[in-house]
């Protein structure tokens, strides 16, 4: 046999530019998280790892303000936890009502349909949020088994208020499912107080951990629905009835947990607990306000009204006559700063600027404002 060397390319040892990631995610990981990530492995059933699994579960409960027993990090990115949230709770034929006011609402629609949900939508323009009256009207019309909303819409920068939503869901006997990918660890979240039944998140936003591990929590009503399913979960990898045997007392092998990503998440969650949620939320808000004031001084507007504006992700209106892509390109090339543009109905109209976790600091705000002043015509 002749060895084929066609693909044996010569490459240099990896080197990457020192980017400041101020886009919609990932954000820069905290140095302590990167240090934890690089530690030697133990086995996925090692007593030390099991101890760490328990710690991650407890710290996630703190970050989310929930006592939910079923709270775990899913192996995968935010979309894996998103998919798990639907795969486990939607049974074929279930009516799933999704609030669509941005791209991630549309992704929920797509996923819920793939699991056999009878998916209905209520819609708002990108950047607006649903009122309790909007939600009541939707629930009355569609009578869903699940209402799914995005708490922090990364495509629009809007924060969906959740107070009072669970009361409506109880009245209409449906579960409340919430996307907290761009809010966990940066924006106030009170899952239990707000009566949320199902929530998921990602690691690479306000938790300042690399992408690749994704929190998921199921409240008692969601667990009951899972336990009483008539059909098996149509996704083996994300079947929480199987995974609960690994994360619960039995510790039975399901898949090999990403050991180092769990180390990294632990450090990220320790940082949250060390700082304290109130201080962390206040820091995100203060740095966002600093950014918004700087923009206002430059005569630049934000897309979302102050009341519903996310501190973790600001959508900045592109001034008339400015090429949004060209500005983002120059920020990256000349200043190593990443920001992103808008897409869908907001393509070309906005930039998306993330001030998340470790990156939510005044020096980053001042640097970005100064760089923007340089590159804007
Ligand atoms: N939901 C929201 C609101 C998001 O912003 C994202 C990612 O940006 C996701 C879900 C999906 O997460 P991931 O890209 O980590 O799979």
Key features of this structure:
13 helices, Aspartate Aminotransferase, domain 1, 377 residues, 2 domains, seven-stranded mixed β-sheet, binds pyridoxal-5'-phosphate, 15% strand, Aspartate Aminotransferase, domain 2, alpha/beta
Ligand catalogue? pyridoxal-5'-phosphate
What is the averaged pLDDT score? 98
The CATH architecture of the largest domain is: 3-Layer(aba) Sandwich
Helix share of residues? 40-55%
What is the CATH topology assignment of the largest domain? Aspartate Aminotransferase, domain 2
Order of helices and strands: EHHEHEHEHEEEHEHEEHHHHEHEEEH
SS-based class? alpha/beta
CATH homology superfamily name of the largest domain: Type I PLP-dependent aspartate aminotransferase-like (Major domain)
Q: What composes the largest sheet?
A: 7 strands, mixed
How many beta-strand segments? 14
- Poorly predicted sequence stretches spanning 5 or more consecutive residues: none
Q: Numbering strands along the chain, what is their spatial order in the largest sheet?
A: 2-10-9-8-5-3-4
């Amino acid at each position: 046999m002749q060895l084929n060397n066609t693909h044996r390319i010569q490459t240099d040892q990896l080197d990457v530019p020192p980017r400041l990631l101020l886009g919609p995610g990932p954000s820069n990981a905290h140095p302590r998280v990167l240090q934890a990530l690089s530690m030697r492995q133990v086995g996925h059933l090692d007593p030390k790892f099991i101890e760490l699994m328990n710690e991650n579960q407890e710290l996630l409960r703190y970050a989310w303000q929930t006592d939910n027993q079923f709270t775990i990090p899913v192996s995968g990115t935010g979309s894996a936890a998103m998919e798990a949230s639907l795969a486990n709770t939607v049974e074929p034929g279930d009516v799933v009502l999704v609030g669509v006011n941005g791209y991630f609402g549309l992704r929920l629609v797509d996923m819920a349909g793939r699991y056999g949900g009878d998916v209905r939508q209520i819609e708002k323009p990108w950047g607006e949020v649903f009122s309790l009256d909007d939600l009541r009207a939707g629930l009355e019309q569609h009578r869903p088994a699940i209402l799914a909303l995005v708490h922090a819409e990364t495509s629009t920068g809007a924060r969906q208020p959740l107070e009072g939503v669970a009361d409506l869901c109880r009245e209409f006997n449906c579960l409340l499912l919430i996307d907290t990918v761009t809010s966990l660890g940066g924006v106030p979240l009170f899952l239990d107080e707000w009566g949320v039944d199902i929530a998921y998140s990602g690691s690479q936003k306000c938790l300042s951990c690399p992408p690749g591990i994704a929190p998921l929590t199921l409240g008692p009503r969601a667990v009951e629905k899972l336990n009483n399913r008539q059909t098996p979960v149509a996704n083996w990898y994300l079947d929480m009835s199987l995974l609960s045997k690994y994360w619960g007392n039995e510790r039975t092998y399901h898949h090999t947990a990403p050991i180092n990503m769990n180390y990294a998440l632990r450090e990220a969650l320790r940082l949250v607990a060390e700082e304290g949620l109130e201080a962390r939320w206040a820091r995100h808000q203060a740095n966002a306000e600093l950014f918004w004031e700087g923009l206002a001084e430059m005569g630049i507007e934000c897309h979302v009204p102050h009341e519903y504006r996310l501190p973790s992700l600001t959508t900045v209106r592109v001034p008339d006559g400015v090429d949004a892509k060209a500005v983002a390109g120059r920020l990256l090339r000349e200043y190593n700063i990443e920001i992103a543009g808008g897409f869908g109905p907001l393509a070309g109209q906005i930039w998306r600027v993330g001030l998340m976790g470790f990156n939510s600091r005044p020096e980053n705000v001042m640097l970005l404002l100064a760089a923007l002043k340089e590159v804007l015509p």
